[in-house]
Write a structure and sequence with these properties.
342 residues, alpha/beta, Rossmann fold, 2 domains, 9-stranded mixed beta sheet, 44% helix, binds guanosine-5'-diphosphate, binds magnesium ion
């Protein structure tokens, strides 16, 4: 059987399992929250698979609590000091950046701002166009900063110095710092947290950012466990300006112990930092390492490998009776057959 065929069939089988969960357990939203972790992970691989096959938008987003260097990281990837960043938390909107695929000459940056009404509908409010990045940045400070920010802001422009992968139809998404799930889901829902959390679903690959000095704080650990433990994600340790080998080992151990990550080959760790504290960007070297990881994770080969691995795990668990299997056993047999086919 053809290799691609098998992956497609595995994917279809998962869709079947999920739809059976939805049918027996209730609404889509509740079910996704309550899926067994192993199926959540499976689902996130499928999401990436859909992207590789061109079915979904390729959005890569940064997540984490405020002041972890998320906006700085994205500015570095696109090599423009365009997103608001600073000593105080400054990002208020979800901001998507996209490279205009047309010819670069005489191109302008186009910014569009959206608000979401109580009924969940989005309305376009403002449009701004300018060739100069500094001007665009000033504008973003006003519309996506901390005072009355729009819910979503789209920036499309030439980004002539961006890293190569950005030229390949990816969108990069900046998000406001979120605090813990409890805070975000409480009655007096924190506006920024809510925006960030709601935007997670559409992302194909989250970059979870935490600075090396705050790695051990409880709220970061909780944030990771709440939202990313069951997803494919890249773990970015920021503000590692001058790390020794020893520091690295210590960081790695903290992550393995505190964050409940069993195997850090599954969760790529990236260390980023600046040469000088005043720089607007992290080092080119950090950017390039991150770029390679992103490209690898989203590559077709890797996604198919991950899909297969997680299918195997699910099948093992079901066979051992460790997770409930709501679809006919025939489906399980069929998945086993597909897995053995290669
Ligand atoms: N020393 C150092 N500072 C950084 C680094 N990355 C970001 N920062 C600083 O951390 C602060 C918060 O950055 P920002 O990107 O606004 O964080 P965000 O709230 O997570 O988007 C800013 O003052 C940045 O200059 C880094 O790698 N090294
Ligand atoms: Mg920010």
């Amino acid at each position: 059987m053809e290799h691609q065929d098998i992956s497609q069939q595995l994917r279809d089988q998962l869709a079947l399992v999920l739809s059976e969960y939805y049918r027996t357990l209730g609404s889509k939203h509740d079910v996704e929250k309550n899926l067994p972790p192993v199926l959540k992970k499976w689902k996130s691989i499928i999401d990436i698979y859909d992207i590789v096959k061109g079915k979904k938008q390729r959005i890569i987003g940064v997540y984490g609590t405020p002041k972890m260097g998320k906006s700085t990281l994205l500015n570095s990837l696109v090599q423009e000091d365009i997103l608001p960043r600073g000593i105080k938390p400054v990002t208020g909107s979800v901001i998507n950046m996209e490279r205009d695929q047309r010819d670069q000459s005489d191109q302008e940056y186009l910014v569009t701002c959206f608000r979401t009404g109580d009924d969940g509908k989005e309305t376009l409010f403002n449009v701004y166009q300018h060739p100069n990045v500094a001007k665009v940045r000033e504008y973003l400070d006003r519309v996506a900063g901390q005072t009355n920010p729009f819910d979503r802001v789209e920036v499309r422009g030439p980004f002539p110095n961006a890293l190569a992968f950005f030229q390949d139809k990816y969108k990069l998404r900046d998000t406001p710092g979120a605090i813990s799930k409890e805070d975000a889901l409480s009655e007096n829902l924190n506006r920024d947290s809510r925006r960030a959390i709601q935007s997670m679903e559409e992302i194909c690959l989250p970059l979870f950012c935490v600075s090396c000095e705050s790695l051990q704080e409880k709220n970061h650990v909780q944030y990771y466990r709440d939202f990313f433990a069951d997803r494919i994600c890249i773990f970015v340790i920021t503000k590692c300006d001058d790390l020794t080998e020893e520091d690295r080992l210590e960081i790695r151990n903290t992550i393995l112990n505190d964050y409940g990550i069993k195997d850090d080959t599954d969760i790529p760790l990236i260390y980023t930092g600046k040469k000088q504290k005043e720089d607007p960007y992290i080092t080119q070297e950090s950017c390039e390492i991150l770029e390679k990881k992103i490209q690898y994770i989203l590559s077709k080969d890797n996604v198919e490998k991950a899909l297969r691995k997680s299918c195997k795990r699910v099948v093992d668990l079901i066979a051992r009776g460790s997770i409930e299997w709501p679809v006919p056993k025939v489906t399980l047999k069929y998945i086993q057959y597909l897995l053995n086919e290669r």
